[in-house]
Amino acid sequence: MLCAQGTTQLPRWRWPIQERAVEPRIIAHGALTFQGPKLVSNELDHAAGVPWFGFEVGTGASFTVHDRWGFDVQGDFSYQSNMLWVDTVCFPVFLPNLRTEFRAWRLLPWLNWDEGELKISMAAGWDFQSGGEKSRDDDQYHTTTRFDALTRAFIAPELGLWYYDDVLDRHEFAVRWVHHLDRTPAFTSTVTSPAGAATFSGSQDQMAFIYRYHFGMPKRVPQGPWSSTQYDDRTTDTLVTLSTRRSGVPLVLWDDAEHDGDTISVLLNGQVVLDHYELSPKHHRIYLPLNWGDNTVLVVAHNLGRVPPNTARAYIRTGHGRVRLLVKTATDRNAAVKVRYH
């Protein structure tokens, strides 16, 4: 039983994580963008603007409120590309750009996916484009691209998936459309040859396919040994013994039956990581920082609810897949999971 192991003190950097209404994270952002120029005039046999790909990278901060909605502040650097197709020759146009934006979003359940949610976002911000001119010669073709210094507002609706790979960190995959409110052309390109000329312009409106990683910044607080319920005289059932090479694993708990007021606490090696929590259909994630060697996760019941016994569904991710558990406890019986970190 866990009580025989005493109350091992975890190092300060591995204390349990405190629940917070607003969870801050740092964003690392990367995207593949597609934008195309518009053919303004043409005197040649064939000319067309072709959508082409660029990229953007950025960083910022996200704030998740009650695991349901949130807002982000972010800055990006992008290198946008447009393709000019004249006769049998293609001319890429590359323009650097800086961007800052504010994004509000909402999380919604999606099918029966218990490791993530649907994310609907709306962003607003500004593009900052410097001015200049570029020229290029290819055989009998000469291309001149002119672009003015512009600061333009944009809006960007976005649809994505919010994925829980870790208790603290989040993955995000999204697609969005960026629409500039100022319709002034971002650039004008003219391709000339002995046969005539073709002129293109571009707004830099774009479709973007995005990946973001949200790095969690937990506030850890000591909870110390917990003695509000005497659990040392109870029988303890060991549900499963697991092994992992990770220094910490997430434990997810929920009540998939009737919400009847079941209340539990979870202890890791004698330290409280979840205190007097009432189970509900909502998945609750806690992080278990492991000691090297053998660890014991103990689930203690505080009541039997309206429908005995005190029952919870759970799973642990050890790095080798997800291990599902059915945790049944009572006021005279605990449940334990053994985890070996090696």
Spans of at least 5 consecutive residues whose pLDDT stays below 50 are 1-15, 221-225
CATH class of the largest domain: Mainly Beta
* Major sheet attributes: 8 strands, antiparallel, barrel
Structural class: mainly beta
Label this structure with key terms.
single chain, 342 residues, mainly beta, Porin, Immunoglobulin-like, 2 domains, 8-stranded antiparallel beta barrel, 5-stranded antiparallel beta sheet, 23 strands, 65% strand, elongated, disordered N terminus
Give the SSE layout.
Blueprint: E1 22-35, E2 38-42, E3 47-50, E4 52-65, E5 69-86, E6 89-108, E7 116-129, E8 132-138, E9 141-147, E10 150-163, E11 170-180, E12 187-193, E13 196-202, E14 206-216, E15 235-244, E16 248-254, E17 263-268, E18 271-278, E19 284-289, E20 293-301, E21 310-317, E22 322-329, E23 333-341
Parallel strand pairs: 15-23
Antiparallel strand pairs: 1-4, 1-14, 2-13, 3-5, 4-5, 5-6, 6-7, 7-10, 8-9, 9-12, 10-11, 11-14, 12-13, 16-19, 16-21, 17-18, 17-20, 20-23, 21-22
Could you characterize what this model shows?
The chain has 342 residues and is mostly beta strands. The chain folds into two domains: 22-216, Porin (Beta Barrel); 224-341, Immunoglobulin-like. It has no helices and 23 strands. It has strands at residues 22-35, 38-42, 47-50, 52-65, 69-86, 89-108, 116-129, 132-138, 141-147, 150-163, 170-180, 187-193, 196-202, 206-216, 235-244, 248-254, 263-268, 271-278, 284-289, 293-301, 310-317, 322-329, 333-341. The strands form four sheets. Strands 1-4-5-6-7-10-11-14 form an eight-stranded antiparallel beta barrel. Strands 2-13-12-9-8 form a five-stranded antiparallel beta sheet, with no helix packed on it. It has a five-stranded mixed beta sheet with strand order 15-23-20-17-18, with no helix packed on it. Strand 12 and strand 13 form a beta hairpin. The model is unreliable at 1-15 and 221-225 (pLDDT under 50).
